[in-house]
Structures are given as C-alpha cells and as structure tokens.
UniProtKB/TrEMBL annotation:
It holds the Pfam family ABM. Coiled coil: none annotated. This is ABM domain-containing protein. Residues 11-83 form the ABM domain.
C-alpha cells in the first residue's frame, strides 16, 4: 500500500494529527466504519494514514471542495465518533484544513 493521489488541483487536504490514549476501547472497529462512511461522501478523493508505536497518528483526507468536507463533518456517525474521541481515544489532536494548489508524484 502506498500514498494516494496525486489529484487534479485545486482540492483540499484535511490533516488530523493525534496522540492516542492507551487501549483500543472499540477504536479499531469505529475507524473501519468511518473509512467506509467517508468513502461514500461525494467529493471524497482518498486518504493516507500512519501511526507510530508510541501513539502519534496522522491521517490526511483529500476532498474535492469545502462542500465535501462539510458533508463529512456533518455525518451523524462521524459526529458521534468525534465526541467519543475527545472522551476516550485521544489525549490531544489538531486538525488542519488546507487548499492544495499543486500536486505531483512518482512511481
């Protein structure tokens, strides 16, 4: 498995950096479900994700436009997972939303 993209700019990248709490607490199953849900959002382009053994994780979701981001943010199961995340899964997290002006790659 490798990185997704590149995509035709402009598009948006939503970067979610987090530090996990110990234990799973249903995190894995919820993450799998959220991946299914976000894939169905019109305008979702793809996602890259990585986690260190120490719990630091970075997930980058790529979206065609701000409407697609808003649709994902408004998804009821995603909202519920965000609430659980603050209570159970994350010591801390940061979200960055950026407009991508240039995108290229190599295989």
């Amino acid at each position: 498995m490798g990185p997704v993209g590149p995509f035709e700019p402009p598009y948006y990248a939503v970067v979610f950096s987090s530090l996990r709490t110990p234990g799973d607490n249903d995190y894995g199953a919820t993450a799998e479900r959220l991946e299914e849900l976000v894939a169905a959002v019109p305008g979702f382009l793809g996602m890259d994700s990585a986690r260190t053994p120490g719990g630091l994780g970075i997930t980058v979701g790529y979206f065609k436009d701000e409407e697609a981001i808003a649709a994902w943010r408004g998804d009821p199961e995603h909202r519920e997972a965000r609430t659980r995340g603050r209570k159970e899964w994350y010591e801390k997290y940061v979200v960055h939303v950026a407009r991508v002006e240039r995108s290229y790659g190599h295989e």
